[in-house]
Amino acid sequence: MGQPQKPIAAEQQILSLGRVLQSLREEDDVDVLIETTISYLKEQFDYKLIWIALYDRLNHILFGKGGITPDSDTSFLRQRVVLSPGDLLEQVVIEQHPLGIADLQTEIRAPEWRKIAEKSHIQGTIILPIRYKDRCLGVLLLGSERWGYLLTGEAKARLMMVLGELGAVLYQNEMDLQQKQTKRTDEPLLELLENLRSLSNLNQRLEAAVQATHKFVSPSRTNVYWFEREGRYFWCRMSNQLVKIDHNSSSQQAAGMTVQELSDFYYALTVNQIVSIGDARSSLKSHFTAKLLQRLKVRSLLASPIIWQKNLLGFLAVESNQPRIWTEADKNFVQGAAGLISLVAPSESMENTIKQIQEDAQLTGQVAQGIYSEHDLQETLDNCAKRVLARLAATRFLLLQYDPEQNNYQFIYQSQPYNRRPLTFALNTLKELDEQLLQRSTQAVEIENLDEDLRFFNWRPFLLENGVRSLLICKCTHSDIPPAILVITHENHRSWTTLEKDLLWAVSQQIGVIIRQWELHNRTTQQQKTSQAFEQCLRILTQSQNSKIEAGKKHLERTALEQIASILGCPLAVLLSWSPGESWAEIIPGVVNNSLFGIFSDASISIQAEALIQWALATESYLTLNVDNLPSKTRKWLNTPDKGQILVMALRTNADYEITGVVLLADYQERQWSEQNLSAIATLISQLAWWRREKQITRLLESTTEDLRQLNWYKHRRLEEIQRITALSLKQIHDLGIPANELTQMRYELLLRQLDHTAASMSGMLKLEQWQLHISWETMPIASLLKRSLERIENLLKHQKLWIGVHGLGQQIEEQSPNNSSLARGIPTSNAQSAMAMSPTGYAYAGDIVKIELVIHELLINACNSSKNGGRIDIWCRRLDASKSSNAKHFSASRGAEHQKSLELSITYNGAIEPQLLTELHNNTPKDVLAPSKLDQPPGLHLLICQNLMQELGGELNFYQLPDNRVVSRLLLTLVDHNS
Question: Contacts from 763-768 at CB under 8 Å and sequence distance 24+?
């Protein structure tokens, strides 16, 4: 068996690493661990300076535990190093990452080590954290006489393994030490609980809790402070130094501490938060911590609230005259002791609490009974307010209701002592945050100190001015903007218990039912008022008035405006009125009930230039705006306060009809009009618009009818006189005898026959058509009808040098010049007539010959007047089936001729015609009888008469323009077989 081989260098390093790791795992003494680590580092690494220090987290300090130096002077290696911001050592501790320094002698961030480095000739340095998980337990400093600080990968790995094992062992030792040093709270608390069970008096129980807490925590003093809600102050009820302190004691310990003095401390207790103030640490803000310690004359404080049913009864405090760091065990015990006190505290007043609960239930029951009984609601609220004020020891009982018209809260009920005046102001609407606070609340909102509390900020000035210092607020109903709010106020700073807040919440919900009853009553009253206004307006609008009396019309409009204004309660209501086609509006005043509102009735208001009128015309319904938005030109004739509002609405009936006025209402800006009332007045204004339109149409038709009657009477009497004179002249001619000359005799007899025919036709017209048209039934060849029509305009054609051509009568027609001797050349000859009307297959017009001849004559006159001199007129004839025209078919059927044909007679010419006239002549175009129209005067009026007359005659008459700008008058006539 051979000699064992000597291990190589790498194996020796691994063996040495294994031995030191094993030693670190098996050792518990911290000093031995440090020495073992230093020895390994000295043996395995070529560093002249080695220093190991442990980190104190609480004090942010490094404690030196030893190492080696070049000159063997190790005194400074065991010093305490206080870490400061910016130091290299603090950077390693905080970041927990290694830090390399190329030359420690030049490093200004470690002044102490810089001096040591200069003395010991140390340059390259590495500082490494000793850590476990995320906790830094210490640092290792390695210094070399060489410049630089690099470690090889293998050496760095061995070093990190040793430091990692050292950190794990140090962490475990620290945890074991803490566990040994930690005081157990379970046994002392169980012992305290057993003592509390055996005691019957609250003061004795408080004394036992104070003594147990003082023994466990060992502070300078241990006190129990009790909270008085009325007055909002704390007083020392129990102390380990002065046991069983009387509430009325004048000692300094028993002296009260107000909530205003404690401030943040008090609000932390109310949310069940333990307050800890120790050495350089505080759970409160720094500026208040010093104030609180000065008030209590201590340097450390640990306080836990005593809470029962969300009500703060007081707090248990341990106080120290020296700076002290409170351990978790101290906090847990104080919190547990305070919790035990909160469990035994209610037993002192249990009977009173039960009695109070019974009285509260009786109070809410009486409120509910009063609501559903037949008692007066005012009496119910009086009884409720009296009992609530007595129960809560409050000053005022206020019930507010939101007024949407005024946009504020009004006091609809209030109760206060006899020596207090009722509140006479109104409260503005709540800010958005306060509205959300009330919407989310499920119990009364408490404000203990209105001087400091910023909630309900826009109410504070009014309430503070009237002596309110604390209050409870409850919403009575649920909605976006609380429509009803119950407020209980007090003249002093105070707080209320949860039981009291729950009571007020229950009462407020019962009162909410009363509010809803009032709302229903008010709504019914408003609906009745609106209904009466509707009834009155309808009665006014349906009254029959003489259209000639303008004052009567204005009286009805003024009365209608009064009813419209009464719904909104507006102090000003006027009507800006005009007739279609006018440019200026007339002011019709309806209501002026306030000197601040008014109009200048003599002002001239331009419809196009007045902004209010144009805004109303551009709005489909009503428009509301502030007076501030009105232009200065409008303010010259409209007098309203600066903080006012305007409502305007046009008298609109139909989109195709003319607007004849604008209703204007004015009111104060603070008032908010409800949607229900706005809808009601919109309906009434619409009714007023229709009434005005009907009245205007009636007046127009009556005036037109009267004018036509006068004209018809005059023309009829003139025709009677002409007929009489004509008949007398004929009689005289007959009496004179027949001339002897044969040619003269023939012409004489022809003229006599024409005069006889004319006189006979006038006699028939005077007899049958005095007040209405008489439709006769005759036939005439189409060619003859056209020939007679053209003969009547012969002089006009010659004067304007117009060309005329007739097409479609059965032969090729040549265009004729007006210079020819006779217009008949443009008409078919007798042969053509026989081909069209006289042959067995010919056709003739069937109807009222006189009237259709007048229609054709009017169309030809219009074509001549619209054509330019030297222009051209074409007459086109074309046969159609009866189905082409519904009117012709209906007329033929009424005559019993089912197989009759129609003739399309089109007159075309190059001339000017207004597009508006063409649009209005179209049968399907809606027409507003009040709007200015091209059909009110010739030539449009004559064309419209012809168009309507053709419909009565069973034909059609249409007007349109071709793409080449020629104007067409299309006439549809009924044809019959001439032989039939």
Answer: 763/723, 765/719, 766/716, 766/719, 766/720, 766/723
Burial of 465 (0-12, 13-18, 19+ CB in 10 A): exposed
At residue 570, the pLDDT reads 86
Give the largest Cα separation in the chain, rounded.
Answer: 191
CA dihedral for 293, 297, 301, 304, sign (positive or negative): negative
User: What would the two tokens of residue 547 be?
Assistant: 């259209």
pLDDT in tens, 710-763: 666 756 666 766 777 677 777 777 776 666 677 777 777 777 777 777 777 777
Walk across the sheet containing 427-428 and list its strands. 427-428, 408-415, 396-403, 484-490, 470-475, 445-447
**Residue 957 is encoded by which pair of tokens?**
């008459």
Residue 751, classed as helix, strand or coil, is helix
φ, ψ for residue 98, nearest 5 deg: -60, 150
Average pLDDT score over residue span 661-682: 83
Roughly what angle, to the nearest 10 degrees, separates helices 186-198 and 328-344? Answer: 20
Q: How many angstroms separate the CA atoms of 710 and 701, rounded?
A: 14
Question: SS3 for 235?
Answer: strand
Question: What is the rounded distance in angstroms from the CA atom of residue 357 to the CA atom of residue 500?
Answer: 10
Q: Give me the sign of the Cα torsion angle 368, 369, 372, 377.
A: negative
**Neighbouring C-beta atoms of residue 530, cutoff 10 Å:** 20
Distance CA 552, CA 416 (A): 56
Question: Smallest Cα–Cα separation from 902: which of 885, 919, 916, 890?
Answer: 885
> Is 306 within 8 Å of 345 (Cβ atoms)?
yes
Contact 390, 466 (CB under 8 A): no
Q: How many whole angstroms separate alpha carbon 854 and alpha carbon 860?
A: 10
Q: Which residues on neighbouring strands pair with residue 189, listed in sequence order?
A: none
E strand intervals along 593-643:
598-599, 605-606, 623-626, 638-639
Nearest Cα residue to 398 out of 417, 385, 380, 383: 385
Q: Please give the distance of CA 431 from its chain centroid, rounded to a whole number.
A: 16
Q: pLDDT digits over 814-833, tens only?
A: 344 454 433 433 333 333 33
Q: What is the DSSP string of 458-508?
A: GGHHHHHHTT--EEEEEESS-SSS-SEEEEEEESS-B---HHHHHHHHHHH
Instruction: State the Cα angle at 161 between 157 and 164, rounded to 5°.
Output: 135
Residue 106: partners with Cβ closer than 8 Å, 6 or more residues away:
114
Closest listed residue to residue 40, CA positions, set 178, 158, 211? 158
Closest CA to 937 of 581, 655, 696, 586: 581
Q: Which of 245, 242, 243, 219 is nearest to 234 (CA)?
A: 245
Distance CA 167, CA 180 (A): 20
SS3 553: helix
Cβ–Cβ < 8 Å for 806, 827: yes
- Residue type for 659, please? I
**What is the DSSP track for 40-109?**
HHHHHS--SEEEEEEEETTTTEEEEEEEE-TTS--GGGG-EEE--TT-HHHHHHHH-S-EEES-GGG-TT
User: Could you write out the DSSP letters of every residue in 362-390?
Assistant: HHHHHHHHHHHSSS-HHHHHHHHHHHHHH
- DSSP conformational letter for 628: G
How confident is the model at residue 353, as a pLDDT? 63
User: What six digits make up the tokens of 863?
Assistant: 């074509």
CA distance 275 to 277: 7
Is the Cβ–Cβ distance between 677 and 568 less than 8 Å?
A: yes
Q: pLDDT, tens digit, for every residue of 310-341?
A: 888 899 999 988 888 888 888 888 989 888 88
Q: How far lies 76's CA from each of 39, 65, 81, 90, 887, in Å?
A: 19, 10, 10, 18, 128
Cβ proximity of 417 and 385 under 8 Å: no
Cβ–Cβ < 8 Å for 813, 877: no
pTM of the model: 0.45
